[in-house]
Amino acid sequence: MALQKKAVTMAVVALIAAGAAWWFWPTEPAPTAAAQRQMNPWAMPVPVRVVPATAADLRVQIKAIGTVTPLNSVVVQSRVSGPLQALHFKEGDKVEAGQLLAEIDAADYQIQLAQAQGQLEQNLAQLKNAENDLALYSRLREQSSISAQQFNNQQALVEQLKGSLRSNQAQLDAAKLQLSYTQIKAPISGRLGLRRVDVGNLIQANSAEGLVTITQSSPINVVFAIPENQLQQVRQAMRTGEPLVVEAWDRAEQQQLTAGVLTTLDNQIDIATGTLRLKAEFANQQEELFPNQFVNVRLNVAVRSGAVTIPQDAVQYGSAGTYVYTIEDNKAQIRQVKQGPVDNGMVAIEEGLSVGTPVVLEGLDRLRPGRAVEIITEQGSAAPVTPAEDTPRRRPQRAQ
């Protein structure tokens, strides 16, 4: 019995000690609303980078896709037939007009020239003899020693031989011309392609395949097309009399290759596509453009002075149209804007913004109207805010 009472007493003492420890143990105060917001990453201010709208001169450009085309492209052909005797060029070389490229065996044409020369000399001798006889007949006719018919026949013979002589001279010139064709020369200046025939082959005159091609690459053209609704803008710019600058950019539109001027417009719109073809010329001294190369074209038609501009990446697109996020009282607000022309990553804002208005450039993905923001001013992107993985447990606050 004594042992039983002792055990009960000890149990009561333990309960009293545990209650006292719980009562007097220090507790953490309940988290405030601000602390709760800090624990919730979606309620925290969003880090953003802002840029002010600025006033700048903006080029009005028309963008298109173009193809580089040489001013002239020639297939070098032989004008006479014969064995190809020699080639005097290397593939890919630049050549000048009149430069010797190849030679055809000229033996046959030298023989033809010699024949024409011999026939000419033969007829020349006959003509000289006939003219001497005509002079004699003329004196005899004055003395009435010969008939008028004899004199007239001799005079006709002289004229006939003169005609034959002119024909012989033409044959001689033709033979010389054929002989000159055995030396194949560059018809234009430009760059050679790959040769299509080797030395020793029999060349046929005017073969469609030819020997080699020459393309004139300096200067060079770019042909591109614009929609017909932009035609009036281009024509108005051309009426000023100033040359319109055309820029050629690479396929990714990351690097400007070169710049030229607009030279001409086609004389009719393509009814199948509703576009008009234009041609621009580039000096291409360093051969920045290559024939048949694909390029992105930017045609500068005007300059808008003092336009309100912002980076193009700051503009957002929604069902209600284009808009940007502005900052008011450290909160994000939507501002509807009207876009204008774009120039090298900057866009003109025709309505909705004024110079100096800050717009959000980075951190747009988590913004909504009225969301608190934290403006980041140092270089680099704003660091993302991530929730803590292990939040310590807090005991409930004791009633006071």
UniProtKB/TrEMBL annotation:
Keywords: Cell inner membrane, Cell membrane, Coiled coil, Membrane, Transmembrane, Transmembrane helix. It comes from the Bacteria. InterPro entries: MdtA-like_b-barrel (IPR058626), MdtA-like_BSH (IPR058625), MdtA-like_HH (IPR058624), RND_pump_MFP (IPR006143), YknX-like_C (IPR058637). Residues 378-400 are annotated as: Disordered. The keyword NAD does not apply. Pfam families: Beta-barrel_RND (PF25944), BSH_RND (PF25917), HH_MFP_RND (PF25876), YknX_C (PF25989). Residues 219-302 form the Multidrug resistance protein MdtA-like beta-barrel domain. Residues 112-182 form the Multidrug resistance protein MdtA-like alpha-helical hairpin domain. GO terms for cellular component: efflux pump complex. Residues 106-178 form a coiled coil. Its main location: membrane. The chain crosses the membrane at residues 7-25. GO terms for molecular function: efflux transmembrane transporter activity. Residues 73-215 form the Multidrug resistance protein MdtA-like barrel-sandwich hybrid domain. It is found in: Cell membrane. Residues 307-374 form the YknX-like C-terminal permuted SH3-like domain. PANTHER family: MULTIDRUG RESISTANCE PROTEIN MDTA. Belongs to the membrane fusion protein (MFP) (TC 8.A.1) family. This is HlyD family secretion protein. It comes from Alishewanella agri BL06.
